[in-house]
Design goal:
The protein is α/β, with parallel strands linked by helices. It has a single domain, classed as NAD(P)-binding Rossmann-like Domain (Rossmann fold). The strands form two sheets. Strands 3-4-5-6 form a four-stranded parallel β-sheet, sandwiched between helices. Strand 3, helix 4 and strand 4 form a beta-alpha-beta unit. Helix 1 packs across helix 8, helix 3 runs parallel beside helix 4 and helix 4 runs parallel beside helix 5.
C-alpha cells in the first residue's frame, strides 16, 4: 500500500514495485489519477482513493485492501503523502501550519494505525518517506521541516514498538527531488505571501525572493524520483533493511553537517548558501 501515488515519488514507487512483481494498492486523490496510473502499469496495480486527512477515507481504503487480500497479510506500507507549507513563521496562518501537520504527520499515523493489523499478519514492512529536512532545518520552510522532524521521531518510536512482531520500519531521507510538489508549494507560498499584511513584504520581501532563487537553483540539481523508488524497493526487499536511506547527491554530507556542525556555524552557512547574508 502506497499513499500519495498520484505523482512524483509515490507514482515512481508504484511503477517500480509493479515491475518487481508486487501487487500494489496505490493511494490516489481522485479517479482521474487512478485511471492514468492503470494505463501506465500492469493489472497488478490497484488504485484506491484516499485523502490521508480524512479518517473515513483511510478506513475505507483499509477495508478495500483487507477485502482484496482475502485473509492474507499486507507485506508493505509506504507512507509517502505530503505537502510543503513555506513562508516566514511570524506571518504564516495557523490554519496552514495545522494543515502541514495534518497531512505530513497526523495523516501518516492514521494510515499506519489502519494497516498495522494487516502488516502484523505478514510480518510486513513500513517505509516512511521523510526528507533531509527532517534532520536539517532551513529558514522559511519551518512548518515542513518541523513535520519531517516529527515524522523521524515517530518512525523511531514505531520501529521499536513494532519490533516484537517482526515489522521493520525504514526511513527514506531524500535531498531535493524533481517532483510536482515544488510547483505546488511555490503556488501555495505565493498565495500565503499575498494573504500576509504589507509589513511582511517590508520585513521579509528580499529574503523570500532570495529563497525562491535558491529553490530554483536547487531544482536544477535535483535527483530523479526513481532514485527514491529504488531505495524504497530495497527497504521492502533486502534481507536486512536499513533503518535510514539517505538519497541524492550531496545529501549524506548534509546529514553529517546537520549532526556535527555547531548550531551557529550551521545557521551561518545555511543562510549564506541561501543568499541571506547579513540578515
Amino acid at each position: 500500500m502506497i499513499t500519495g501515488a498520484s505523482t512524483g515519488i509515490g507514482l515512481r514507487c508504484a511503477l517500480r514495485l509493479d515491475t518487481l512483481g508486487f501487487r500494489v494498492f496505490a493511494g490516489v486523490r481522485n479517479d482521474g489519477d487512478g485511471e492514468k496510473l492503470t494505463k501506465a502499469s500492469s493489472d497488478r496495480i490497484h488504485p484506491i482513493k484516499i485523502d490521508v486527512t480524512e479518517p473515513e477515507q483511510i478506513a475505507s481504503a483499509a477495508e478495500q485492501v483487507r477485502s482484496a487480500l482475502g485473509g492474507e497479510g499486507l507485506y508493505g506500507l509506504v507512507n509517502n503523502a505530503g505537502i510543503v507549507i513555506s513562508g516566514p513563521l511570524e506571518f504564516l496562518r495557523l490554519e496552514d501550519i495545522r494543515r502541514q501537520f495534518e497531512v505530513n504527520v497526523i495523516g501518516q499515523i492514521g494510515v499506519t494505525q489502519a494497516f498495522t493489523g494487516l502488516l502484523r499478519r505478514a510480518r510486513g514492512r513500513i517505509v516512511n518517506i521523510s526528507s533531509i529536512s527532517g534532520v536539517l532545518a532551513t529558514p522559511f520552510l519551518g512548518p515542513y521541516c518541523a513535520s519531517k522532524f516529527a515524522f523521524e521521531a515517530l518512525s523511531d518510536s514505531m520501529r521499536m514498538e513494532l519490533k516484537p512482531w517482526g515489522i521493520s520500519v525504514s526511513l527514506i531521507q531524500p535531498g531535493s527531488v524533481e517532483t510536482p510538489i515544488w510547483d505546488k508549494s511555490a503556488e501555495a507560498a505565493d498565495r500565503s505571501v499575498e494573504a500576509m499584511p504589507p509589513e511582511a513584504e517590508t520585513l521579509y520581501g528580499p529574503a523570500i525572493e532570495a529563497v525562491r532563487e535558491t529553490v530554483d537553483k536547487t531544482r536544477k540539481t535535483a535527483c530523479s524520483p526513481d532514485l527514491v523508488a529504488k531505495a524504497v524497493a530495497d527497504a521492502l526487499t533486502a534481507d536486512r533493511p536499513k533503518t535510514r536511506y539517505v538519497v541524492g547527491p550531496g545529501t549524506r554530507g548534509q546529514a553529517l553537517f546537520a549532526r556535527f556542525a555547531p548550531d551557529r556555524l550551521r545557521d551561518t552557512l545555511i543562510m549564506r548558501e541561501m543568499g541571506l547574508h547579513g540578515r
